[in-house]
Design goal:
Chain lengths: ~350, ~400
């Protein structure tokens, strides 16, 4: 009894001790690897392929940061987290950053003491339902059984949506996406709800994706983005501007194929500043001049990453929509590199 | 002349703390205690400093805020606008429900399997041995998951029962077995219905009184009254008469296949997750209880069986009237710890989405509020209280059946 209390206290203290450590960038450099929290497996966003290599849209952000900081895109230790464990993992210092389609909310930013560095996917919560049920709107879901990943904002949005439309439902709380898929396909729930991108990714893995429809209602704003711990601004800046570099690169037309050419110097001063041939932006971040070049070279710019992992040519088939550059009518807007 | 001198008064010296066996153990215990206190103080201050450095504080204010999420099994009134505290209470009641059901069922399984393991029949004996070895040697989480997955895969979706012309009809027009759970009718009591229930409860007491009277008559006069059918008659007849006399005041809320295109409405649903958890905990812990029962029975001297047999008792009666009552003294103490295990293992509920207190307070509330330390401390307190409560009740029972030595 005494012993277990002691060990318990030790764990708590250990967790707290980790939280207090600042200087994440030094830790990462000293360790030589970046510990990046990702999902336990959501095809397109973060999932290991047949060789055990992690791939996906969120994974690409982790790799870009590793390339910028450590100069090696493969120096990433991927830590799979569930909706429940992700924040504890980040707060305790077990991971250096979390790129796990996590919604940026006020309370997570302010109360949980995290720092969202930006948005890498503008999403919203949707519903997936078998076609044979003939439902065309989420408002017709009165009395349905809904599978939902527990510990997420979707849980709260769902309760709000049904309450405001004055219809009832039965929640089936599920821990991981894989379990939800199994329950949904077995008919243990009528509807599966999560971020629309996640639904599309899940549906892509079904045997007959055409038998399932996504309902038109998007019931929430879900800006998904990578986050770091509060209070370590240097590290926050590194992750934020790595993400911005990927977005700016698309806007400026820098791709993984023409980057070497452009790194030799161009007429566009912003490209030059981004790629480190002009100015001292890298130095200001505490990195070398070519940090952004390495980040972009890893998997290409934002548009290339999107197209390769979740774009219209992939089984997941997501359109750019809100995630187009601001110049194309989307919401992606990186602050200038100046 | 002899003088009696006092034995030299031994002066206490500091070195005796180490060299004198009378003090040495105390010294070491004291040092160990100091070290332990220092370690705890260090960890505690470390925790507080670090929490402060991270800008966090310990506060239970979140318990009064609206929870914002829904729970699928609500034994008490609960909506998403209820507080986190109420969500925790719903979770606590759900924990107690599954713990109670599993304790009762595990005891029944355990006693039957334990007795049958000592059967003279080779097949029965071996079957029970297989049951015990298979179930107690596989982690309970695996059992919970496998039962849940088999249920969801083997049973049909609720949709087959729905519509004007369903694929399947309700069993007896009352029950539906779906992979979401078992839907069954719910009795609805009109005001007079409670009177019928009262008559039934009175009948139960009547049966007990009759059996007492019959036993007393047997001991006093040797006259044997029939036990079986009069008990049954006293139990059932007055209730049935009252039910019809009062104009059938209890109706059934039947599952309705037409009300909704997703689910059966009406009646009461026993969730698949509850069934999986309950059944898994019961058969898993039942295997442990079976071993306790077997040990208890084998602890009773064979002479007791032989003595009872020589009085002409049948084997079933020997077991029920002679062996088991004595074996209980050996069985109860380990049974307590098995009950505690069931209660604590019920925290695996989240694996199948059953909303026990670990799922509500320790799961969703923890996640939505981010108050990890506070909620986990509350959870520890809750399980501690429940476990101590079960221990206390069972210890009282243990005392009541203990061998009374005079």
């Amino acid at each position: 009894m005494k012993k277990s209390v002691f060990l318990g206290a030790l764990t708590v203290a250990g967790l707290a001790a980790g939280a207090a450590a600042a200087g994440t960038m030094d830790d990462v450099k000293a360790r030589g690897t970046l510990n990046c929290g990702v999902t336990t497996g959501l095809v397109g966003f973060a999932a290991p392929d047949s060789n055990g290599e992690w791939n996906g849209f969120d994974v690409a952000v982790c790799r870009a940061v590793a390339a910028a900081v450590l100069g090696d895109a493969s120096a990433v230790e991927f830590v799979p987290t569930t909706g429940k464990t992700r924040f504890t993992a980040l707060a305790s210092g077990e991971i250096d950053m979390l790129a796990r389609n996590t919604t940026w909310t006020f309370s997570r930013d302010v109360d949980l003491k995290f720092e969202f560095v930006g948005v890498n996917y503008y999403d919203g919560q949707g519903f997936m339902i078998p076609k044979e049920l003939g439902v065309s709107s989420a408002k017709e879901l009165d009395g349905a059984t809904v599978c939902i990943q527990t510990g997420t904002t979707t849980e709260l949005n769902l309760a709000d949506f049904f309450r405001s439309n004055n219809i009832s439902y039965e929640p089936v709380p599920i821990e991981t996406n894989a379990e939800a898929q199994q329950q949904y396909l077995a008919g243990a729930c009528d509807v599966y709800t999560t971020d629309a991108s996640g639904l599309a990714a899940t549906r892509a893995t079904f045997e007959n994706p055409g038998d399932h429809v996504l309902l038109p209602e998007i019931i929430s704003k879900e800006p998904l983005g990578p986050l770091v711990r509060h209070g370590d601004n240097e590290w926050g800046d590194v992750v934020r501007w790595t993400l911005n570099a990927l977005i700016s690169a698309e806007e400026l037309g820098v791709t993984s194929t023409n980057i070497d050419e452009m790194a030799a110097g161009t007429d566009n001063p912003e490209i030059n500043r981004l790629l480190g041939t002009e100015g001292t932006l890298g130095e200001m971040l505490g990195l070398d001049a070519e940090w952004a070049m390495r980040a972009i070279k890893t998997n290409g710019n934002y548009g290339e990453i999107f197209a390769k992992n979740i774009g219209e040519d992939t089984p997941i088939g997501l359109a750019r929509g809100l995630n187009a550059q601001w110049t194309d009518g989307g919401l992606l807007y990186s602050p200038p590199f100046r | 002349m002899t003088t009696i001198t006092d034995p030299p008064k031994e002066q206490f010296r500091l070195s005796m703390l180490l060299n004198d066996t009378r003090y040495r153990s105390l010294t070491f215990q004291f040092i160990a205690l100091l070290l332990l206190i220092a370690a705890f103080a260090y960890l505690g201050s470390n925790l507080i400093t670090n929490l402060r450095a991270a800008g966090l504080n310990i506060s239970y204010g979140f318990l009064g805020e609206p929870a914002g999420y829904d729970i699928n099994q609500r034994p008490i009134e609960y909506t998403s606008q209820s507080t986190h505290l109420r969500a925790s209470i719903v979770g606590i009641i759900n924990t107690l429900i599954v713990a109670f059901l599993a304790c009762v069922t595990a005891t029944i399984f355990g006693v039957i399997a334990g007795v049958l393991r000592l059967s003279k029949n080779w097949i029965v004996r071996k079957l029970m041995a297989i049951y015990v070895e298979a179930f107690r040697n596989v982690p309970v989480l695996i059992w919970i998951l496998i039962i849940f997955f088999i249920m969801t895969a083997a049973l049909p979706s609720a949709r087959v029962y729905l519509g004007e012309d369903p694929e399947r009809d309700l069993f007896l027009g009352l029950f539906a077995f779906t992979n979401r759970g078992i839907v069954m009718p719910l009795p609805v009591f009109q005001p007079l219905g409670w009177a019928v229930l009262g008559v039934f409860i009175a009948s139960v007491f009547g049966v007990i009184a009759y059996r007492r009277y019959a036993t007393k008559l047997l001991y006093d006069t040797g006259k044997l009254l029939p036990m079986g059918w009069p008990s049954l008659a006293i139990l059932i007849l007055p209730t049935i008469i009252a039910f019809y006399l009062l104009g059938q005041p209890i109706t059934l809320d039947r599952p309705d296949p037409l009300a909704n295109r997703f689910n059966l409405q009406g009646g009461v649903t026993i969730l698949g997750s509850l069934i999986a958890l309950w059944f898994a905990l019961a058969i898993y812990t039942g295997a442990f209880i079976a071993e306790n029962v077997r040990a208890g029975i084998q602890a009773i001297s064979k002479g007791q069986t032989e003595a009872a047999a020589s009085l002409g008792m049948r084997p079933g009666r020997i077991m029920n009237l002679v062996i088991l009552p004595q074996a209980l003294r050996v069985i109860i103490p380990p049974l307590i710890s098995n009950y505690l295990n069931i209660t604590k293992n019920s925290s695996l509920a989240i694996a199948v989405g059953y909303m026990d207190v670990t799922g509500t307070l320790g799961g969703i509330t923890l996640n939505q509020t981010g108050r990890a330390i506070e909620t986990v401390l509350l959870l520890m307190l809750f399980y501690l209280l429940i476990s101590l409560g079960i221990s206390a009740v069972m210890n009282v029972y243990n005392k009541s059946i203990r061998l009374k030595e005079r």
